[in-house]
Amino acid sequence: MSTFNELNLSPEILKSLAGLGYEKMTDVQSRVIPEILKGNDVMVQSKTGSGKTAAFGTAISEQIDWEENRPQALILTPTRELAIQIQEEMMNIGRFKRLKAVAVYGKSPFKEQAQQLKQKTHVVVGTPGRVLDHLERGTLNLQRVKYVVLDEADEMLSMGFIETIEMILKMTSLNRQTLFFSATLPARIEKLSQQYLKNPSMITIESESIVNESIEHALYQVRVPEKVRVLKDVLTIENPTQCMIFCATRDEVDALYQGLKAQGYPVLKLHGGMEQKERLETMRQFKMGRFPYLIATDVAARGIDVSQMSHVFNFDLPEDGEAFVHRVGRVGRAGEKGKAVTFVTPFEARKLEEIQTYIGFELPVKERPVKIEVEQSRERFESQLKRRPQQKQTKQADVHREIMKLYLNGGKKKKLRTVDFVGTILSIDGICKEDIGIIEIKDQVTYIDILNGKGFDVLDGLKTRTIKGKKLKVQRAYQV
């Protein structure tokens, strides 16, 4: 099978996939989705950028029962950024089935997450520590969970989450379907799979190299005092349309960010020391293409999917070969071409040797750019820097075309419930329950997705109606 249409999926899921631009399946999708639909546990080894989120997302969304109010799927992931990204993907795939996914993670208000979990929730995506926290405080119920996914299992092992994951798995039903996804298979992950997976289908997406073959590599040998100058020279010659620059520590990210920003580079930064709201806004701006440069620590290397990113720069070498693979895996995704540029100092010779042993090849050494090359490239480089960035269309743009999100200035504090909104909307001529999508009721406001191009009909209809005897302000909600 090569296309999603061959999978006998529901029209709602196929409609979402088409809107997301998913037509032909990747290798991992064509092999994994049928196994999940058969009800099998799976253990998948696949390199980053292979499309595994859409693989388990499609199969799980297809099988979820909308009528059930409690979570039916739990997806565990190592980082906050990846949890949010997977939640968005699940919401996009399940949009026309009206599926609700909630992300839970640390350094974000627990109370707000608990309030979301009180409402109808089909999928919970979270980091292990915060998921366990919700379980212990009784704000997350796993009694109806049929599917448990461990995404980036090897990374969760390296981050010390395995004991927490085992505690969570023991709180789920023995009849669950368990899905492990990992770029590498350390012995501890294999042991975990033997303990918690039942006769799993073992799926390995073969690759001649552990590193994506569509990535071009370049290695520059530099001394520490000249690293920034060489980086600027290489940036001028390479002229990336969009890139990530990886540093080893938060302090180095801050220093390089301040230096480049002061010289007029349109740059953002991302590291674990930033407030969660700031990190999310940074990733939103970068994904939308509003800034071409993002300087980051390895916190951003796992799972961040930014379309059409041209370059990755290893300003500092990562700690090991696995981290190198995940850094450079930010480019060359879904068949695109990309380039990874790595800097190495004389003090990092042994670390470079270990990385090259791990990836199975030597990085090609390049001569540092000479002054005349840099000057010849400068006009083109500076012209691109001054050019107003073309805003990228987000993945969900096509999915949202037939959906209008409405904002109403009333919620829980006014004792409004889902049934109150649904009853009023169904009183509007030409509207049926299939036209009502996800309803998110907060303390003071409510957001409602209206499907099938019926948004303006509902918007006009609600302006002349009361909800539970209350006249509410209703308007179109802003969507990125």
From TrEMBL:
SMART domains: DEXDc, HELICc. It is an enzyme of class 3 (hydrolase). Residues 33-203 form the Helicase ATP-binding domain. GO terms for molecular function: helicase activity. Residues 404-480 are annotated as: Involved in 23S rRNA binding. Its main location: cytoplasm. InterPro entries: DbpA/CsdA_RNA-bd_dom, DEAD/DEAH_box_helicase_dom, DEAD/DEAH_RhlB, DEAD_box_RNA_helicase, DEAD_helicase_DbpA, Helicase_ATP-bd, Helicase_C-like, Nucleotide-bd_a/b_plait_sf. Residues 2-30 form the DEAD-box RNA helicase Q domain. Coiled coil: none annotated. SUPFAM superfamilies: P-loop containing nucleoside triphosphate hydrolases. Contains an N-terminal domain that binds non-specifically to RNA and a C-terminal domain that binds specifically and tightly to hairpin 92 of 23S rRNA. HAMAP family: DEAD_helicase_DbpA. Belongs to the DEAD box helicase family. DbpA subfamily. This is ATP-dependent RNA helicase DbpA. It comes from Turicibacter faecis. The gene is dbpA.
